[in-house]
Design brief:
The complex is a heterodimer of chains A (115) and B (116).
Chain A lengths: L2 E4 L3 E5 L4 E3 L1 E4 L6 E6 L5 E7 L5 E3 L5 E5 L4 E6 L8 E10 L4 E5 L3 E6 L1
Parallel strand pairs in A: 2-12
Antiparallel strand pairs in A: 1-4, 3-9, 5-6, 5-10, 7-8, 8-9, 10-11, 10-12
Chain B lengths: L3 E4 L2 E4 L4 E8 L5 E7 L6 E7 L2 E5 L6 E7 L2 E7 L7 E8 L11 E2 L3 E5 L1
Parallel strand pairs in B: 2-11
Antiparallel strand pairs in B: 1-3, 3-8, 4-5, 4-9, 5-6, 7-8, 9-10, 9-11
């Protein structure tokens, strides 16, 4: 069965420093993986997706993630945090049932950015 | 236009009321989804419509009744809800429902529902 585990429930960084949000996945075949961001009282916005093309995926707002099959990881990074990056981040794996596409969400990582 | 709209933004209803949530997209997507999100939790899938037919019902209680009148619209009819049904209800759409192509889901801003 496909699943994702977000290793940190809360990450705090200073503005201008690098961001690392960790995600490990479990899948019996090559998965489709996504990172979504949710700002307070908002819907979810897609940051980036991996669908078995390039292993280094670039997303919006300077975020990127690297798919590492040997480590079953899909960590999200950004070189320099901005105050506006403070939000909840979800690592997501797609489960394809043959008739529909279902997303399974990790438990989320709350990113706090301080001055 | 990559926008999914949801109305209303907020809804307060009593346990005997009947209300509906509405979701609309004009991206030509043929799959639409309802999710429920409790505070500080990830979204949980409730229903999937594919080509206007109900494809997945995640064992949701019958007090939630989805409807897809056309390819752009998705409704969620609510009746006799319980206080524990208070949550953020998110709608999403995607270009198609699955393999061989994997299409990302676009989410609306949600309806904040409070059941009193």
């Amino acid at each position: 069965a496909q699943s994702v585990t977000q290793l940190d429930s809360h990450v705090s960084v200073s503005e201008g420093t690098p961001v690392l949000l960790r995600c490990n996945y479990s899948s019996s075949y090559s998965p489709s993986l996504f990172w979504y961001v949710q700002h307070p009282n908002k819907g979810l916005q897609l940051l980036l997706k991996y669908t078995s093309a390039a292993t280094l995926v670039k997303g919006i707002n300077g975020f990127e993630a690297e798919f590492k099959k040997s480590e079953t990881s899909f960590h999200l990074t950004k070189p320099s945090a901005h105050m506006s990056d403070a939000a909840e981040y979800f690592c997501v794996v797609e489960i394809n049932t043959g008739t529909a596409s279902k997303l399974t969400f990790g438990t989320g990582t709350r990113l706090q950015v301080t001055l | 236009d990559t926008e999914v709209t949801q109305t209303p933004k907020h809804l307060v209803m009593g346990m005997t009321n009947k209300k509906s949530l509405k979701c609309e997209q004009h991206m030509g997507h043929r799959a639409m989804y309802w999710y429920k999100q409790k505070a500080k939790k990830p979204p949980e899938l409730m229903f999937v419509y594919s080509y206007e037919k109900l494809s997945i019902n995640e064992s949701v209680p019958s007090r939630f009744s989805p409807e897809c009148p056309n390819s752009s619209l998705l409704n969620l009819h609510l009746h006799a809800l319980q206080p524990e049904d208070s949550a953020l209800y998110l709608c999403a759409s995607s270009q198609d429902r699955g393999r061989p192509h994997s299409y990302e889901q676009y989410f609306g801003p949600g309806t904040r529902l409070t059941v009193t």
